[in-house]
Queue: 2 jobs
Job 1
Amino acid sequence: MVRSGSFHVDSSSASHRRTPSRTVTLGHIQPQAPSYRTVYCNDRESNQPVRFKGNSISTTKYNVFTFLPKGLFEQFRRIANIYFLGISCLSMTPISPVSPITNVAPLSMVLLVSLIKEAFEDWKRFQNDMSINNSTVEILQDQQWISIPWRKLQVGDIVKIKKDGFFPADILFLSSTNADGICYVETANLDGETNLKIRKALERTWDYLVPEKAYEFKGEIQCEQPNNSLYTFTGNLVAQKQTLPLSPDQLLLRGCSLRNTEYIVGAVVFTGHETKVMMNAMNAPSKRSTLEKKLDKLIITIFCVLVTMCLIGAIGCSIVTDREDKYLGLHKSDWEYRNGLMIGFFTFFTLVTLFSSIIPISLYVSIEMIKFIQSTQFINRDLNMYHAETNTPASARTSNLNEELGQVEYIFSDKTGTLTRNLMEFFKCSIGGISYGCGVTEIERGIAQRHGLKVQEEQRSTGAIREKGFNFDDPRLMRGAWRNEPNPDLCKELFRCLAICHTVLPEGDESPEKIVYQAASPDEAALVTAAKNFGFFFYRRTPTMVHVRESHVEKMGKIQDVAYEILNVLEFNSTRKRQSVVCRFPDGRLVLYCKGADNVIFERLGNGTDDIRKVTREHLEQFGSSGLRTLCLAYKDLNPETYDSWNEKFIQAKSALRDREKKLDEVAELIEKDLTLIGSTAIEDKLQEGVPTCIETLSRAGIKIWVLTGDKMETAINIAYACNLINNEMKQFVISSETDAIREAEERGDQVEIARVIKEEVKKELKKSLEEAQHSLNTVAGPKLSLVIDGKCLMYALDPSLRVMLLSLSLNCTSVVCCRVSPLQKAQVTSLVRKGAQKITLSIGDGANDVSMIQAAHVGIGISGMEGMQAVMASDFAIAQFRFLTDLLLVHGRWSYLRICKVVMYFFYKNLTFTLTQFWFTFRTGFSGQRFYDDWFQSLFNVVFTALPVIVLGLFEKDVSASLSKRYPELRASMRSRPKVPKK
Amino acid sequence: MSSNTPSSSAAAAAAGSVDPSAARRNSKRPKYSKFTQQELPACKPILTPGWVISTFLIISVIFIPLGVISLFASQDVVEIVDRYDTACIPPSDRANKVAYIQGAANKSCNRTLTVPKEMKQPIYVYYQLENFYQNHRRYVKSRSDSQLRSVKDENQIDACKPEDDFGGQPIVPCGLIAWSLFNDTYTLSRKNQPLAVNKKGIAWKSDKEHKFGKNVFPKNFQKGNITGGATLNPKIPLSEQEDLIVWMRTAALPTFRKLYGKIETDLHKGDTIEVNLQNNYNTYSFSGKKKLVLSTTSWLGGKNDFLGIAYLTVGGICFVLALAFTVMYLVKPRRLGDPTYLSWNRIPGGR
């Protein structure tokens, strides 16, 4: 009942999940040790002594023997169950006024229900595991392909995987039916990206394709120990006395599937729980709602009441009975009536048993049941939260946080993909100091509207092309018109750079209309699409070549196919923030094309183009302020000698076993310098539908929204403006690391000094802002406040000494924008508010970089229906659109909170009346502890007789209708300020 | 517009509805039902002044007459209560009542009752005990139902301690309850004519037929050192020992009445009834009171004003509330649905 999500996860992704206990054990063997494993391919005997783990996986919590003890243990970790176990034991003794059935029956009923639920969930997991373990794979045995179940697969086996098949383990890619030893894999199960990835086998192993040949393959793989890093793999293949370096390119991961390739042959490297995907599997930390924690406190209070009642009874009994010890011949009875103290002692326990029903045994079970129905029937099936375009309904992946939604006070939102569509459209560009593109962004329009300016309707030139990823219109560049521009050469370089410098895969027919670009990010696809529309049509990629159909290059209207040889790809990563490609033109010219973030590129420019640089910088700022994402492009001609000497270093770094990444970065640094600036591109990042209205509604409901983004400050501020988060009436505090003082310190370059300067600056800024904030809060009707801070400053502001100041400043602000923040910082900010301010927080995001933030908040929400499953897998609720937050928080959350509160009150009410009658009766029976109710009545009162009304209340109670609570979001704020459950 | 390239229109078509049936098959769109959309019909009464005042009025209009009727019914019941526990002890022995009651002296005692009003038959004769905890946990469980029911189970005496056996032989009926059977007796006479008290048919029929066996005879009863109460005739089966059956149905509260018998003639106003009673039962050790009660019944049962008073109180409160709300509504009416009263429209500290 708790993890409702488990029923919706399809079989393949279910294998990623695992019980927490499992994760803990694996956590211990996290192999950071320098040792490596040696695998003898195609040789089971040699691998025997090492005892690699088998390929069968188990994600179940229990087995037949451990189910009862372990299941019961889990149940008795709940304090209420322990309490009832104690009471049941007491009721077996002669001091009990009630028959044991009174306490044993409800307890066993509650336990039975919970155990059946556990068993059912575990059975599902088991069946899932079995179907995975028993799916078949072909392995090489005696020169033949033989089908065996996955679980019998061993490290070192040679396997054959057919088209669309899943890889049963982590496999070293040896050969493929495709030419050039490549294959395509889909990694949707791992990272949710639907674009195909190329994997390339080592040239030496291309031949081992048919059984007869593959049988001869005897190699030794030396590679790292199993670890959970999906994107790294280092190792060597020792075959025929040659040592060949291995890279992630040769590793096919379990969980991925083969596409567009007839079949491949590979050697198993990691199996079962040692595969990377299984090492990665983890459960989101289980979250308990605040209400549930409050409930615990309430139960403890009630327990104290119980003890008091029993003490009163015990004292009363010892006085009464002691005084009238001859009463009704009791003096003749047993030893426990010897003196007042003894009588009191035993009566105390008698009364504990009698009054035990003051703590409602079925409370937890009923609440779980209510929440389960709420999440599976109401949230998951709400048509208002169904997104038709992506065919995604909302999904509550856990049911124990429903009412938490009704109490959220802070929302931490990612920008890209959450507030914005992550739908990138090529919008503008700047080439050689001239800005092209005459569109007006929605954000600009919004700003203009706020300034009261009339926005003129867009004038589209008649031939304008509009397609997914391309929303650019400027006759000066289209259809070869760029030839007449002042810098036709730079234009050409820009288009080539766009067409060559990327990692996009073309798919489908090689015509401009039908081709589909598979890209890692929509930015890349937009750029390649732009190149296509400018007449540089990238249509085919082979492992070494990029084919581009160029138009109008030599003269207007001429179309020619050009094949560029790709010599090196210096890939993009978050530290480099740039991507380069070294290519050789058909005429032998060697060129490095580089694209990346503006500051990174500007740092690496050569001398001489200062004016272009200055103008481009201005353009970049303009683009940024219209909410566009910018990239700078640059190129560099290489001479063959320098290239060759560099290439040697590159190959060396590439085959390094250790710290390969770092070495590659260092080598890249050597060649990515003295670049020539071409210009910049600007891509529009479209807002999601209904975001501004949703944000306005939520802020009327008293919820504060913080935007945490990795984007630039200007972009972030503009998105915040566009979303109504910030407006001109607000007082803005900007804490940026782009100040002169900090820049100066950075130029001096001493790390310690930089840190000191930034910290001082941040401290100064914070202090100043805080004073101003407090001043304006003290004045009547002062402006609302907003805070903008960037990642670098945030790093220092999160320092324990400044944290308090940051917190009190940001809590005074209606909206906060943090830009250029890392995933870790996102989580830090979230827990700052969660722990520091004791507020209920909600994080919403769509990408892998939001996972930590989603897990750090009280409630984590993932945006589903788009690329990337990681955020969803880590989340508690998944919705398709940001705007559905209105429904989720204002309708479902509000109602759930109201209902659960009422249910709890109802429970305590009915059990208090039930027990207090008993208590009153105790006074009338000489404190003897005689029961007032029939045994069966008492035992079934909670679990049967009064079970249904409570559940009905928990499902159907409404104070106002859904439409009213959306129309008047303030209702929610008023509900929150008046706690329904008494604070104790 | 001609700006659309073929590819984009194809993509649009793919995203849209190409094949409705296929789209429906793969759709994850939740099915509509009033339950899942939380649109089940519901009503929530709005407590307008009209509703509230009329509800209170209706309650008071119903309850006040009911209360009056109940009170009258209770008033009709004629009840004679005579406390005799102290009165029936000779003044010389009142210093030590327990010694007197445990002694061997003659416990005979005469009381005179005057009938205040006409009493129609049947007139019930009760004895009322006060401060007697027949509901005490150790007392209540000190019995053996199976033994009472059938001869076979006469050895089932585990619960009966300390009155379980006598010299190794089971006591029938065993236990503290039976042991402490009430043993005062009343002989009534009017104008020197004996007044018959019918002691048959005072027990519950179900008790006689199902709970007390026809072939279970008292055995070893009251043989112990201390005699608790009445003795039983070992020749009469338990199912016919109606005094025992009445006594064994333990009272819920420490003050209780138990039926002693029925007088099946009318008593007239001013009649004096002579009661000759044997004051045997020891309530003195725990300062319990003993009373003799003669009472008629009405359709509402015995004399009890509680129900009538309860009805009158609730009805009265409702009437007062209805009046108060009416006055408030007339003096200072408030517009319904006034948004200025909403929490977010109230400026903190203002207004």
Job 2
Amino acid sequence: MSARNRGTELDQVGGATEEGVDLPSSLHPTGMHTSGFGCFPMEPEALNLSWISKMQVNQPAVLRRAQQIQARRTVKKEWQAAWLLKAVTFIDLTTLSGDDTSSNIQRLCYKAKYPIREDLLKTLNMHDKGLTTAAVCVYPARVCDAVRALKAAGCTIPVASVATGFPAGQTHLKTRLEEIRLAVEDGATEIDVVINRTLVLTGQWEALYDEIRQFRKACGEAHLKTILATGELGSLTNVYKASMIAMMAGSDFIKTSTGKETVNATFPVAIVMLRAIRDFFWKTGNKVGFKPAGGIRSAKDSLAWLSLVKEELGDEWLTPDLFRIGASTLLSDIERQIYHHVTGRYAAYHDLPMS
Amino acid sequence: MAATRTKPSAREIFTTLEYGPVPESHACALAWLDTQDRHLGHYVNGKWLKPEHRNSVPCQDPITGERLAICLQAQAEDVVAAVEAAGTAFENWSGLPGASRAQHLLRLAKMIQKHQRLLWTLESLVTGRAVREVRDGDVPLAQQLLQYHAVQAYTQEEVLAGWEPMGVIGLILSPTFSFLEMMWRICPALAVGCTVVVLVPPASPTPLLLAQLAGELGSFPGILNVISGPASLGPVLASQPGVQKVTFCGAIEGGLRLLIQESVWDETMRRLQERMARLRGGRGLDGAVDMGARGAAAHDLAQRYVREARSQGAQVFQAGAVPSDSPFFPPTLVSDLPPASPCTQAEVPWPVVVASPFRTAKEALAVANGTPRGASASVWSERLGQALELGYGLRVGTVWINAHGLRNAEVPTGGCKESGSSWSGGPDGLYEYLRPSGTPARLSYFSENLNYGTFGLAVPSTLPAGPEIGPSPATPYGLLIGGHFQAPGARSSRPIQDAQGNLHGYVAEGGAKDIRGAVEAAHQAAPGWVGQSPGARATLLWALATALERREAALTSRLERHGTELKDAKVEVELSARQLRAWGARAQAQGHVLQVAGLKGPVLRLREPLGVLAIVCPDEWPLLAFVSLLAAALAHGNTVVLVPSGACPIPALELCQDMAALLPAGLVNVVTGDRDHLTRCLALHQDVQALWYFGSAQGSQFVEWASAGNLKPVWVNRGCPWAWDQEAKGAGRELGLRAARTKALWLPMGD
């Protein structure tokens, strides 16, 4: 196995901070990124269809587990504040709209750099942590704007670009690959590709594997985040199989949805994907990241997602290298909750800067 | 736990990402206890009852040991007062139209809804169970139970016509129970018009709170009375003349036994340990724990079991280190326990899971059915065919396919074997508190003088009793066992006299060995008969009816010789044939599909045979009673061992000649002889799976006592003769209810 295990290195970092050792901010796991994931992208595994052929997901059991986990894990007070700040470091702050221009991209990038009001962080003694979101995520044509804005802001937050005919993926493979290359050329260090749902629904797993392998290659040094568009895969069993194929083909992350399907990130789907990630880790020793996206708007939701990953994969996955939340409005709700935690009052609309 | 350390800062938690305490305030529970000055008595007839000069026990927080309240212990006179109150209330309550009772139950549901926080915090505080479990599971289900049973009360006059409420019901709760178990039983009882006296173990405030909530509805204060006292008051409650039925309610879920197919053993164990390692234990009132504590006794039980298992060579996996003085016992996975070790035989305590491997589904079924318990089981398989086969084959009351622990008010919940044979929920739960209209109330038939050790022990010897003046053809002779007539093991006979006191003939004197043979034969015939379609069973019963009609002349004259009027004898023979046909027809329509809220997929309510059923037939209506009981039992798929009427067994033996020819060998076994002796043999036989006794009061008492050995379902007439010619009896619904057991098979679906 080519197990260049990104997790190990980060574990050590995490261990050191627990003992209170201050680290250079470039090594800090909380959102200060030198090169996106801090190491090389995942190398593909050979296609092994036996890993998916026998798989059958027990949907009623998954639903029950999904129900339980939301009810059983809550955090309050200091814990809630800390978890919410942590959630900020997982956010891929996203704008994917037809009317995006350089000005709102710029605003977004500044919000990514200063996600929470400085005075609030100060009260929590968190102002020196260099808290930022994990990345900003934009359409390919806006990558240049984002790179420029972030550079101007003087930070190294990676720029992620969606690609491959986002959100439907219904364009020719050639143009999809070209889209990746252009986005990388423009400075995107993470590429969120959508898979070809047709291949899943018709069971062409080899073809799907080959396509994602080509995406991987087109990415070069950039990291590959594969969007499964689970709302359009038909069944949880297909979600598992598509997850496995995407990981074998060398995805650094698997991501639930584009945010444009009718059903987006749901807990049952997430459980299936997380179990696939665990199975893949058990089989290969490689840790693949997880990114739920679409419909995650409230601070409370984000806490549930954190505890879901903590329960299913463990603390080692709770780092921006292995967990992201794709969201656009979530951050402002988190900021409101932090405001409330610090001041004891609910914030007015004008109390918090817009993104 | 984090709570015991100094509180970490957000900065620290940001790095560790640990869980923090999520304490649920129990101020309202304490405030409620304060309204009673932390001094709880009993709740009888809508009022708190706090008699003086009673012992009291402290009610403690199971985790901190803090004293929450003092609870009075009832004495016999308090029990009497509660039963009296319930008796008085019964007169009004049972006379109400169902719609009014429905209204009242709905008001109680509303009342619970208004005070749900108090209910869940109090329950969690005193039992140590996870508050989430009580809040999200028990409290909504308690309301659902009231709502469901309100609907049942509303339709009672129509749907349950011909049945009436039994009267005052005594409910005894075991030391570790949840208030929900009480709700499962009081809801159907109250719905059909019964009133209830609940004896709760010392220091159980939640049932008292529920009784208070019910009492504060104003009207009908005495329908729910709760007294708290030691287990020794159980017999006192049971022997109260006003109490018509006593229900005992066992403990909440214990540990689990897990059977894993060898081919997926490693994978499953790995996942299991992974998951168990993430379970959080802690104070029940913490909103983010999976498991609370259940007090010192449960802790010790688990600890002793695990220590024992280790010493017997088992592998023990425990997630997380828990200090030995902690009240929390970690979830424990025990494996590699040799099958013959004592631990394997013992009941697994909470929170322990014992895993063992199996090779084939058949083997798994044999292992699962090879325990004396039979409450519930879940089957996990991706192959529906296999899962269903196991679901049907398991001898338990509830089977979940690919799910576990689901419950719903509409689905009957019960058990097999030592898990008891009473039902709660669904239609089956209602019948537990009903009796056919017109049957006499339960009299106090209990006799202190009955000597269980000697009842039916010896058979009086019989000698030749004079010339046989029988009609021709000669009386059939022998015991019908395994499909043919055979001589009794004792090689002796007993004379049967006719109405004039003349010798009518000799029947074989059956004994313990013959019973053993008959039960064995019945067991051998069981799989074949269960496998028959209801249609095939009906065909055989109809054939038997035709054969019976062919013997009409002989049967009529036999009955006549025993003192039956010719007219009546003819009616009896005719009714007997009709019974066989009626039950044959009824065999076709059994079981149905339920749709319950919150579950995608059906729940099958199956009616399964009891197994080997022993029937001791009454002396009245010697042919009709014999045939009615036999027909109902066979139609429902049971195989039977029958003891025919003692005074007049010969008509039944006549019919045996046809049964020997028509029915599969061993399906019906008929043993004549001394009734008390045969009853004793049957009642003490562990492999007789159910027993119906129609005979003397003494015999009834003995049967109920002896059947406690394997908790087989028994049905006794307590010495009261029945009018078998009436529709309500011979072909009545009670017979149909008794002849089969319900199984709920949950089939959640989805892809």
